[in-house]
Amino acid sequence: MELSARSPDGVRTDWTVAEVSALFGLPLHDLLYRAHTVHRAHFNPAEVQISTLMSIKTGGCPEDCGYCPQSVHFDTGLTAEALVPLSAVIAAARAARDRGATRFCMGAAYRNPKPSQLAKITAMVSAVSGLGLETCATLGMLTPDQAEALRDAGLDYYNHNLDTSEAYYPQVISTRTYADRLATLKTVRDAGLKVCCGGIIGLGEADQDRIELLHTLATLPEHPESVPVNQLVQVAGTALEDQATVDPLTFVRVIAVARILMPRSRVRLSAGRSDMSDELQALCFFAGANSIFYGEQLLTTPNPATDRDLALLARLGLRPAPSPAPA
Ligand code: SAM
Ligand code: DTB
Ligand code: SF4
């Protein structure tokens, strides 16, 4: 298979589904060899970017995403909370920075933010940016004015995931469409924000859906700068609580194909690491993952203990990537 670069910087956005499918189906060692070669050509393979998440508004979300503990459609025992105060965000961001995080991601269980909520969140973004951290927010759908206000407040990244293939999406979410998701991604990009966009593996999707998700991400007009690959956290009470865990080697294939298709993007090993062995995570880093969520909590579910993560990075000879120079 010819895998020529067609744009001047060597980054292709014209991948075909057949090409993605062929990569996905390579013998595992051929795929890993190729992915690791691409990885080394574009990144320092010893560095892992460290992001910390904070849930700034937990639970009570009107959307019905079948995987999500924060949806009002499921009883997961979670109590809906109000937007946290600015002081709590500043304290958490400072602690994250002191532990070595370079990016701070604020997540809210919204379908879309209301104007009064957005005003409070722009103040949070300014404050976190002022601490010298890269900022990321994930707040659901945005209008162009909201995306611009967040940018003006100092937001670097906006996270909005496609989650799965367009074909499988309606099996998981009925309260908004794939087209809604793509429209918000365009709004965010048009505002000049960097895009963080990925998906979840383990929703009951087939390999073809994984291939189509990767194809959609890699054929956006510009690749997302960050690509979070989440493994489903099966939360009791959600529609997907009994979903079987994915074959770990299939998960590694997704990481490897993402690395090959989007060579300059940070591929983040995201939710689900608590359920992964050190060996699986090591293989994911070899396959091209070079970012993690660090800190003992994701939004509402656990993440590995920080001392376990530091020990893992040390055992693998990996180290936190330095903070990028301000633009
Ligand atoms: N409400 C906003 C939205 O959905 O865009 C932002 C917050 S939402 C919790 C962010 C992302 O978390 C989702 O797009 C999904 O990919 C991921 N997520 C939520 N629940 C998850 C779970 N149980 N396992 C893995 N990923 C999950
Ligand atoms: C992403 O792709 N994964 C993160 C972040 N973006 C916002 C969220 C994972 C959430 C896992 C379930 C929870 O903790 O509630
Ligand atoms: Fe709401 Fe986001 Fe959870 Fe969907 S994933 S229910 S939009 S918080």
Q: Can you give a write-up of this model?
A:
- Helix 3 (86-98) runs parallel beside helix 4 (115-130), helix 4 runs parallel beside helix 5 and helix 8 runs parallel beside helix 9 (248-261).
- The protein has a single domain (17-315), classed as Aldolase class I (TIM Barrel, Alpha-Beta Barrel), CATH 3.20.20.
- Strands 1, 2, 3, 4, 5, 6, 7, 8, 9 and 10 form a ten-stranded parallel beta sheet that branches.
- The chain is built from eleven helices and ten strands.
- The termini are far apart.
- By secondary structure, it is of the alpha/beta class.
- The structure holds S-adenosylmethionine, 6-(5-methyl-2-OXO-imidazolidin-4-yl)-hexanoic acid (DTB) and iron/sulfur cluster.
Strand fraction: 5-15%
Strand count, sense and barrel status of the largest sheet are: 10 strands, parallel
Total DSSP helices: 11
Assign the CATH class: Alpha Beta
Percent of residues in helices: 25-40%
Task: Quickly give the structural class.
Answer: alpha/beta
CATH topology: TIM Barrel
The CATH homologous superfamily is called Aldolase class I
- Specify the CATH architecture: Alpha-Beta Barrel
Helix and strand run: HHEHEHEHEHHEEHEHEHEHE
Q: How many independent structural domains?
A: 1
Oligomeric organization of the protein chains:
single chain
How would the global form be characterised? globular
Mean pLDDT: 95
Compute the gyration radius: what is it?
18 Å
Which parts are unreliable, with pLDDT below 50 for 5 consecutive residues or more? 1-5
Cα separation of the termini: 38 Å
Overall strand count: 10
List the bound ligands.
S-adenosylmethionine, 6-(5-methyl-2-OXO-imidazolidin-4-yl)-hexanoic acid, iron/sulfur cluster
